[in-house]
Request: fold
Amino acid sequence: AQSVSQHNHHVILSEAASLELGCNYSYGGTVNLFWYVQYPGQHLQLLLKYFSGDPLVKGIKGFEAEFIKSKFSFNLRKPSVQWSDTAEYFCAVNARMDSSYKLIFGSGTRLLVRP
Amino acid sequence: SAVISQKPSRDICQRGTSLTIQCQVDSQVTMMFWYRQQPGQSLTLIATANQGSEATYESGFVIDKFPISRPNLTFSTLTVSNMSPEDSSIYLCSVDSTDTQYFGPGTRLTVL
Reply:
């Protein structure tokens, strides 16, 4: 069965530190990859996505992610975090099957950025 | 991206009762989805609701417990039936737009 693993459940950083959140998936077919963010008290928002082409994708608010097919990974990065990046981050994989598809989420990573 | 609203935003219900959650989208969409996010956990897909067909439920979710309606291309409802405290969760609807899902604000349900 398809699955998504986020190895870091809680991350605490100081402002200006660099961020990398890991995401690995298990699915042998074609996948679309996503990172979503949920700020405190807000709804789930799309941060960035990868469908094809350049494996390094850039999203909103300075975030980027790199798709490494050989490692089944799609890690999220940001060179310098801000206090406002405090949120929960979810990696998701869209595994297409026949005419439908299913979005599978990782368990999420709670990021706390200290000012 | 689509603008999605849900009603109610939150509710507190007694066990044994039912609650219907509404999801409204500002544009016509083919595929709508219902998810559950239990406290401190990730999102789990309940069912996929396409207009004009029966909803497709994921393993562990059944129509008698979570009946879904999809009367048109901009609206869907999810009913949580015969509720128990274990049904306390956030329920979210999402829509597909060019193979990307966008989420509503969620309905926070507490069952006493």
